[in-house]
Amino acid sequence: MARASGGRILLGIGVAAVALLAAVAAGTALFSALLGLVGGAVAALVVAGAFGGEEQPVREEQAPADPLARAREVLEALPDPMLLLDGGHVALANARARGLFGDWVEGQDVRLALRHPAALERLASVGDGQIERLEVVGIGDAERRWLLAIAPLSEGWRLIHLSDRSEAAAAEQMRIDFVANASHELRTPLATLLGFIETLRDDEAASDRDLRQRFLGIMNDEAKRMQQLIDDLITLSRVEAERFRPVHEPVELVPLIEEVRSGCALLLAERKNRLVIESPDGGASVPGDRTQLLQLVRNLIVNAVKYGRPGTDVTVTLAAEGENRLRLSVADQGEGIAPEHLPRLTERFYRVDAGRSRAAGGTGLGLAIVKHIVGRHRGRMEIKSAVGSGTIVQVTLPKAAEPDAPAAVTSLSS
Questions:
Q1: Are residues 133 and 194 part of one domain?
Q2: Of 130, 140, 204, 406, which one's alpha carbon is 20 to 30 angstroms from that of 342?
Q3: pLDDT for 79-92, tens place per residue?
Q4: pLDDT of the residue at 359
Q5: How, if at all, do strands 89-93 and 82-86 pair?
């Protein structure tokens, strides 16, 4: 009977765990509730069968299995933290739960493990056959967000599942910030345009040629700024949409740099900067999307020119990094960036100096676009800077395969 009871307990825990995970993933409250009721009812019946009903014959030569050991096998196979409670104590904790709460958690009072008032309150009030779900913050780390689900079993047993929602919450906050920032960036030039249009509709202002020309010049600049912002938003959206599409065509980087040099000739002349290109003999080719790589090179060089000191060199260096990778570096001789800003430079609309960035015509999306292009091309990006010493942006990409190289080498671009 012990073997049969242990099997029923294991099955009950397994059914409850599956129902619990399904309910958490269901998304809608109604479907979650139905899954919880069905799973809880089945688990209750199965576990109840472990304590009553017809005995099953057990062969004497077979030792009865430890039901908790079998239950541990089930919980250890699950990817999220799971706790099996016997009354108010933690009977079992899988590896992820022990990593979260500590190896000491098994056998302890659940209040010592969770230490979260809302979770403990919900745990105390959970009813039979109903899966309870709530979002909690601060378990394991002050900033981590969890979706905690509790599935009641029979005889006072309960199963707790924790699903880490920190990344989802961060992505949602990023989306909210993005919409707010994009709206603000568009609202500012639009308000300027509307204000000047209203002024020019006045007959007296419109008859003043100098005033009209000055206002029209400002309106033209603001309209171009809006156009550049919209173009960057479209580019960023396109790059994100293509991030899983592999790139195979070899692209020579030196011609791209020369093309950007020609396109930035006026900007270079205005700021009296010189673009210096240092490249290895024999060319520098990477597998990639030529349009996106051109955008990457343009963004890095334009940033270096705009934020470097007038009259200084902007240096673009191409060099081998190991046998299979190529490093592109763009260095300016500007004012540099304080260390606390470096981790956030690739965030959308993040600016070290908002006023200076807008004055230079920046949209705050240039490095975000570069980051996504680098990601699609299976590369790495690093920004090095110090106040007063300028900034170096390094992008490392896989090399393109030689024409006579075996096919296995080309897998670097897939």
A1: no
A2: 140
A3: 899 998 888 888 88
A4: 59
A5: antiparallel
Is pLDDT of 231 > 80?
A: yes
Residue 238 contacts by C-beta under 8 Å, 6 or more apart in sequence?
none
Does a structural domain hold residue 69? Answer: yes
3-state SS track over the chain: CHHHHHHHHHHHHHHHHHHHHHHHHHCCHHHHHHHHHHHHHHHHHHHHHCCCCCCCCCCCCCCCCCHHHHHHHHHHCCCCCEEEEECCEEEEECHHHHHHHCHHHCCCEHHHHHCCHHHHHHHHHCCCCCCEEEEEECCCCCCCEEEEEEEECCCCEEEEEEEECHHHHHHHHHHHHHHHHHHHHHHHHHHHHHHHHHHHCCHHHHHCHHHHHHHHHHHHHHHHHHHHHHHHHHHHHHHHHCCCCCCCCEEEHHHHHHHHHHHCHHHHHHHCCEEEEECCCCCCEEECCHHHHHHHHHHHHHHHHHHCCCCCEEEEEEEEECCCEEEEEEECCCCCCCHHHHHHCCCCCCCCCHHHHHHCCCCCCHHHHHHHHHHHCCCEEEEEECCCCCEEEEEEEECCCCCCCCHHHHHHHC
Residue % of the chain over a pLDDT of 90: 22
- 248 in the same domain as 236: no
Q: How many domains does the chain have?
A: 3
Task: Give the CATH number for residue 323.
Answer: 3.30.565.10
388 lies in the same domain as 257? yes
| Interval 165-175 mean pLDDT | 78
pLDDT of residue 44: 42
- Whole-number pLDDT of residue 282: 67
What is the domain extent for residue 217? 175-241
Each residue of 343-367: pLDDT tens digit?
888 888 887 776 555 555 567 788 9
**60 and 148 assigned to the same domain:** yes
Q: Are residues 296 and 404 in the same domain?
A: yes
- Structure tokens of 141? 């780390």
- Report pLDDT digits (tens) over 187-220: 888 888 888 888 888 877 777 888 888 888 888 8
Residue 252 pLDDT level (bands cut at 50, 70, 90) = very high
Supply the pLDDT for residue 269: 92
Contact 165, 146 (CB under 8 A): yes
